[in-house]
């Protein structure tokens, strides 16, 4: 995961083989990522793509992706857990997180364990990859996404908990 670029692919149904689509999508990823790859400064390619995959599943829109990227990198670099719901949802059977899920002993449980998960959780778009590479620094430490898709930012855990009660 992470390196098969999500895109529309046109294939010939007469001689189509599944492996052809894999190679086509991997080549597409390489074409789109090659120009960015040389600009990576502080992280490995796997770290950038893993973070991009989390961002892809956490929020939508360029501005929010870059702001959330800034929050997640700041948490990571400050020794916090990154606490991304998307990583827990990656290993659970449905689209909800239970109290039991929060206790899972998995490196994908970024609420419990520090650091990035061992690898990407989806195939991120170029927009999420760029957000991962070029985060917007900000003073927020917390965020949540409302049911309508609006992202609400908080400076403190207390403010975040109030926003959770208000919006979720």
Description of the molecule:
- The chain has 168 residues and is mainly α.
- It is built from seven helices and two strands, in the order H-H-H-H-H-H-E-E-H.
- It has a two-stranded antiparallel sheet.
- Helix 2 crosses helix 3, helix 2 crosses helix 6 (126-133) and helix 3 (62-77) crosses helix 6.
- It is globular.
- The mean pLDDT is 94.
The overall pLDDT, averaged over residues, is 94
- List the secondary-structure elements in sequence, H or E: HHHHHHEEH
* Ends apart, CA distance between termini: 30 Å
The structure class reads: mainly alpha
Q: Give unreliable regions as ranges.
A: none
Classify the beta-strand content into a percent band: under 5%
Radius of gyration: 17 Å
Give the overall form: globular
The share of residues in helices is 40-55%
Total number of strands: 2
Question: Order of strands across the biggest sheet?
Answer: 1-2
Please provide a brief summary of the model.
This protein has helices at 18-37, 45-58, 62-77, 85-91, 99-102, 126-133, 157-167, and strands spanning 142-145, 151-154. With 168 residues, the protein is mainly α.
Write the topology of this structure.
Layout lengths: L17 H20 L7 H14 L3 H16 L7 H7 L7 H4 L23 H8 L8 E4 L5 E4 L2 H11 L1
Antiparallel strand pairs: 1-2
């Amino acid at each position: 995961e992470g390196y098969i670029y999500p895109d529309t692919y046109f294939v010939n149904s007469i001689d189509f083989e599944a492996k052809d689509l894999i190679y086509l999508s991997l080549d597409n990823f390489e074409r789109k990522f090659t120009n960015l790859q040389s600009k990576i400064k502080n992280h490995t390619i796997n770290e950038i793509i893993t973070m991009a995959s989390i961002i892809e599943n956490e929020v939508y829109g360029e501005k929010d992706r870059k702001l959330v990227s800034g929050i997640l990198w700041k948490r990571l670099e400050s020794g916090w857990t990154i606490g991304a719901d998307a990583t827990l949802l990656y290993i659970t059977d449905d689209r909800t997180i239970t109290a039991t899920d929060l206790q899972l002993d998995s490196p994908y449980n970024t609420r419990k364990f520090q650091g990035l998960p061992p690898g990407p959780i989806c195939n991120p778009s170029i927009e999420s990859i760029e957000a991962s590479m070029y985060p917007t620094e900000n003073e927020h430490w917390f965020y949540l996404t409302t049911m309508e898709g609006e992202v609400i930012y908080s400076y403190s855990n207390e403010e975040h908990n109030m926003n959770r009660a208000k919006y979720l």
